[in-house]
Amino acid sequence: MGKNVVCKCYKKVKQNGKTTHEEEKKEYDEFAIRESPLTTLYDSSLHIRAIYHIFVVILLLLMCDNVIFDLIENGKINMGLSVVAAGFGDIRRAFKLWVYEFFVAMSLYPLLIVYSWIGGISRKYPVLRPMAVRVGIAAFVALELAVAAVPVFDLCRKHLPVGSAAIVTVEMFRFMMKLVAIASACAPRCLNGTTPLPTFKQYIYFMFAPTFLYRDQYPRTKKIRWGVVTFHLLEVAGVIFYNCFLWERFIIPYWSDYGKDKTVEAGVVVRGMFTCVMPGIISWLCGFYCAMHAWLNACSEMLKFGDRLFYEDWWTTSRFSLYYRRWNRVVHSWLRDHIYLPLVPYVGRPLAIFTVFFVSSLTHEVIIALCIGFFYPVLLMEFGVLSVILVPLTETAGRRFPNAFNLLLWLCFFIGNGMLASLYSMEYFARLNCPPSENDSFFIPKSWTCPEVILKPNWTFQNPLRIF
User: Fold this and answer.
1) Hey, how many other C-beta atoms are within 10 angstroms of the C-beta on 422?
2) Vertex 460, ends 457 and 464: CA angle to 5°?
3) Which of 145, 286, 300, 458 has the highest CB neighbour number within 10 Å of its CB?
4) According to the model, what pLDDT value does residue 258 have?
């Protein structure tokens, strides 16, 4: 396939002294042959390469910690494989659910052919056009529900380990978003008959391509560099081990006894939250690198997908609005084209932005809930509420004081990820260790009532400026 660069120019236009937002103001070169920012930085900067090597050394030291400690303590070598095996347990059941999701997603293609035939009839008899549109919408909604219903029901019936559940739920949402994109692109073709439907080869390529925007053609590289594929897949495996070591050594031990006693001192809880800040942020950065760089670059190389700009330099920004546009361009482009832009003419820009944040944060929260087995909307509050507030607050000030607000951005990342790691761990172990109760529910947090958080006995406030 040849190179296809699609440019969309979004501009503000003024009517009667008021600014309307018919289109975004920034140009997007959606698809072109280009590398990921970290690939370019790693190839061109010895400084970035040194930082990469530092993270590799930390991983090696964590592995040595596991091996030497367990060898001395228990007389055996633990490479962390038990944690990975536990996280991806019952993988056969997860694979069966993925196969179900895949075949339901594939069924849209024959439905498009049928809908194209219905569209041909509606062109001959225009009075049938409204009914054809309603039939198409109803069939598509039913298909989306079919993709989600069986995996959600199965996970609620019998919980899968976190890693296996993550594969099922993330793939479920990935297929649902892909179906929205291809239905939006092909439904008008079925009704108008001016442009032919994509071939099955184009359809299945899109299902695996690292993008949520459908095009008949994408820029392609000339060959597959299997060395690059192997390197990135090894990085994926390394990051999985990395995160397992971080959680096993620094987060889980602190909270594993939470709920065994009826009371816990508030100082212990606060200290635990700050203890989880460093492993929490490192785990998040490793997760970003694994998903957005290593995995997507490996997939792109195998598919000869030329556009590797899955993210931009979000780490240098001083505005939350830029961060959310840059850190995941794959999802951001889908949210922009299928939620934000369709809503703007009807509800205005502020409500459209809030809807995007709400849908995205709720989706993330549902994925976490299905993975860990309970609904505890910490991420929903951080992402869907606090982030919405920070976007306008940092918009103007971030331009005037970029260094200070980049510092603020990273401070929020550190505190936010420490809170996420702590609160989800507290809830998980409270449900595991606390006695069963008739009030136990998938939606009601147990860590709020068990254990009881108390102040230290005989605690009194003392003047911090008093020396003697």
Assistant:
1) 24
2) 135
3) 300
4) 92
> Distance of CA 142 to CAs 100, 136, 149, 359, Å?
15, 10, 10, 20
Q: Residue 18 belongs to what H/E stretch?
A: strand 18-20
Query: Among 184, 208, 232, which residue terminates a domain?
Result: 208
Tell me, yes or no, if the pTM score tops 0.85.
yes
| Mean pLDDT, all residues of the chain | 87
Q: What pLDDT does residue 195 have?
A: 85
Tell me whether residue 418 is in a domain.
Answer: yes
Based on the structure, what is the number of domains in the chain?
A: 2
Return the closest-CA partner of residue 427 out of 371, 365, 376, 366.
376
Matching residue, tokens 């820009």: 349
Crossing angle for the helix pair 129-157 and 162-192, to the nearest 10 degrees: 170
DSSP string of 33-48, one letter each residue: SB--HHHHHHHH-HHH
Mean pLDDT of 224-232: 95
- 77, part of any domain: no
Instruction: Report the distance separating Cα 292 and Cα 228, nearest Å.
Output: 15
pLDDT at 401 over 80: yes
Judge contact between 425 and 250, C-beta under 8 A: no
Mean pLDDT over residues 151-162, rounded?
A: 92
DSSP, residue by residue, 405-435:
HHHHHHHHHHHHHHHHHHHHHHHHHHHHHSP
Residue 2's pLDDT band (boundaries 50, 70, 90)? very low
In terms of DSSP bridges, do strands 13-15 and 18-20 run parallel, antiparallel, or are they unpaired? antiparallel
Is 6 part of a structural domain of the chain?
Answer: no
- Among residues 7, 66, 440, 27, which one has the least CA distance to residue 253? 66
- The span from the CA of 237 to the CA of 59, in Å, is 12
Q: Which domain holds residue 455?
A: 222-468
- Beta strand residue intervals within 163-266, DSSP E: 263-265
Taking only the tens place, the pLDDT of each residue in 427-445 is 999 999 998 888 888 888 9
Token readout for 297 is 């670059």
DSSP state of 210: S
Amino acid present at 142: A
Calpha distance 143→306 (Å, rounded)? 31
User: 20 falls in which pLDDT band (50, 70, 90)?
Assistant: very low
